[in-house]
Amino acid sequence: MIRLIFVTLLSLLFCATTACGEESDTIHEYTVYDDAEHSVLIFSKTAGFRHDSIETGAKAVKDLGSENRFSVTWTENSGYFTPENLASYDAIIFLNTTLDVFENDDQRSAFKGYIQNGGGFVGVHSATDTEYDWPWYGELVGAYFDNHPPGVIPAVIDVVDHDHPSTAHLSERWDRTDEWYNFGFIYDETNVLMKLDTDSYEGSDHPGNHPIAWYHEYDGGRSFYTASGHTIESFSEPEFLQHLLGGIQYAMGIDE
Questions:
Q1: What does pLDDT average to over the chain?
Q2: Cα 32 from Cα 188, distance rounded (Å)
Q3: Could you tell me if 38 and 70 are in contact, meaning their C-beta atoms sit under 8 angstroms apart?
Q4: Do the Cβ atoms of 54 and 24 come closer than 8 Å?
Q5: What does the pLDDT read at residue 12?
Q6: CA distance 234 to 242
Q7: What CA–CA distance (Å, rounded) separates 194 from 227?
Q8: Are the C-beta atoms of residues 201 and 155 closer than 8 Å to each other?
């Protein structure tokens, strides 16, 4: 049986508001599994809107780790981004980060060097609402958020590529309810996995061609992004969790 060890490294002030502009050391803990073969870092710092699904999402990733033999570290302290620390991870997950999450160029350089050395990146939902003034990051994540229709609404997703671990389990059409992003910038060198059927809901700024999940190799590393994951309910949906797991496995370099 897999044994779980929970170790709290930092537990300071928890910023519970939805607009945290200061450095937050919210959670910095790790979960180690005895037979883990890989490891990921969850980074969920927010300097703007704070999603109430972050804690649920982090718990879901930890559960995926226990079921799929990878260890999980979770932090909101950008000071943790050093070359030595990041070298321990197969992938870094930006889980609903917002706005400027790095404090200085040393932290950005550590993250960029990690990717350039073959690291993996996973962006979830508002990872595209992050680091607008850093073009390298915009190309890594694959887009920048612009706006979204009001509220959480149902829509239909067209799965256009099933030859990827994040979409292999899905049917051609996927009915989901979430907050649907419009993008002000979309990097044109990604491999699109899913698009929104823009006739299935109102409010798309990309009629007929609205990518919503993609992957690509970038600057030496691997990147996967899904625009889903706004809601707490997302992280209890089996199809979405398998989608997220497949993206994590791709970013870690696991061919499954």
A1: 89
A2: 38
A3: yes
A4: no
A5: 29
A6: 11
A7: 10
A8: yes
* Phi then psi dihedrals of residue 112, to 5 deg: -60, -45
Please classify residue 248 by burial: count the beta carbons closer than 10 Å to its beta carbon, then call 0-12 exposed, 13-18 middle and 19+ buried. Answer: buried
Stretch 225-248: mean pLDDT = 98
Is the sign of the CA dihedral 86, 105, 224, 229 positive or negative? positive
Query: Which of 211, 179, 193, 195 minimizes the C-alpha distance to 247?
Result: 193
The yes/no answer on whether domain 4-252 falls in CATH 3.20.20.140 is no
Partners of residue 31 on adjacent β-strands: 6, 72
- Which stretch of DSSP H or E encloses residue 41? strand 38-43
Q: What is the reported pTM?
A: 0.90
Read off the tokens for 63: 């559960």
| Helices vs strands, H then E, count in the chain | 5, 13
DSSP string, 92-146: EEEES-BB----SHHHHHHHHHHHHTT-EEEEEGGGGSB-TT-HHHHHHH-EEEE
In tens, the pLDDT along 227-236 reads 999 999 999 9
Cβ atoms of 252 and 40 closer than 8 Å: yes
Closest by CA to 114, choosing from 221, 217, 39, 223, is 221
Write the burial class of residue 172 (CB in 10 Å: 0-12 exposed, 13-18 middle, 19+ buried): exposed
Residue 204 corresponds to which tokens in the numbers above?
């798309």
**Segment (H or E) for 193:** strand 191-196
The pLDDT, as a whole number, for residue 28 is 58
pLDDT in tens, 155-192: 999 999 999 999 999 999 999 999 999 999 999 999 99
Provide CB contacts within 8 A for 238, sequence distance 6+. none
